[in-house]
Design goal:
2 domains, mainly alpha, Ferritin-like, elongated, Ferritin, signal, membrane, DUF4142, transmembrane helix, 0% strand
């Protein structure tokens, strides 16, 4: 009787294993095949990578002149000093982003966008403390928006060159936000967070999906249960009957 139980246990184990393993094998094969695809992807740019270069370019086109204007028209020393740092840093970013655009064949604009041109006109029309408020508020809001995009690119890009540039840009934008907030002219009531909350991050797909991992876990549980059952059957008194 016990031998019959053993035979049925082994048969059931083999059936379960045979049914599950092909699916796991397909998942593993897909993972192996994905490796060359990932290596090829490192040499190209995703749509998000291209958007990143475009956004940094547009940021440079309006923040460089506004930084320079702040050094001349800023009412407080903090605003004048912050303007000088922003202009210098974005000039460096502009050099790099244009080099990368040439390297990867991305066309960049040489004119500010309509929205940033509107911000430039708004800031340029102010004087005294009103200038300081408009300058700090607008640039802090813009940096907050770009900061979210940079984080998304840094965590998701498959291109090592873009990843390095995103790391550099992340450090600079974080520094700028801190400086702008330190001027004392950034106010939540003026909408500094409104634009920064606009983006919804997307995430790169994992090589193995959640379903693949759950299936592999199920196979492991079934194998363990079948093994325990067989061992207990053989170990029981009279197992050879």
């Amino acid at each position: 009787m016990r031998r019959r139980i053993v035979r049925w246990s082994v048969a059931a184990f083999l059936v379960l294993l045979g049914a599950a393993c092909p699916a796991v094998g397909v998942a593993m094969a897909s993972a192996s095949q994905a490796q060359p695809d990932q290596q090829r992807a490192q040499q190209a740019l995703s749509d998000l990578d291209r958007e990143f270069l475009t956004v940094i370019n547009f940021a440079n086109l309006w923040e460089i002149p506004m930084g320079k204007l702040a050094t001349e028209r800023g009412n407080s020393q903090a605003v004048r000093d912050t303007g000088a740092v922003l202009a210098a840093d974005h000039t460096k970013l502009d050099t790099v982003v244009n080099q990368l655009a040439d390297q990867f064949g991305v066309r960049l604009s040489d004119q500010p966008s309509s929205s940033t041109q509107g911000w430039m006109d708004e800031i340029s029309s102010k004087n005294g403390e009103d200038f300081d408020n408009a300058f700090a508020d607008r640039l802090r809001a813009a940096h907050g928006t770009v900061f979210g995009l940079i984080a998304e690119v840094r965590s998701g890009t498959r291109n090592p060159v873009i990843r390095d540039f995103a790391t550099q840009a992340n450090e600079i934008v974080m520094k700028h936000m801190t400086l702008l907030e330190g001027t004392g002219h950034v106010s939540a009531q003026h909408g500094m967070f409104a634009e920064a909350a606009a983006r919804q991050p997307s995430y790169p797909e994992n090589t193995l999906t959640r379903g693949d991992l759950l299936l592999a876990g199920l196979v492991a549980v079934l194998m363990a249960a079948a093994t325990i059952g067989i061992v207990r059957t053989f170990s029981a008194p009279g197992s050879t009957e």
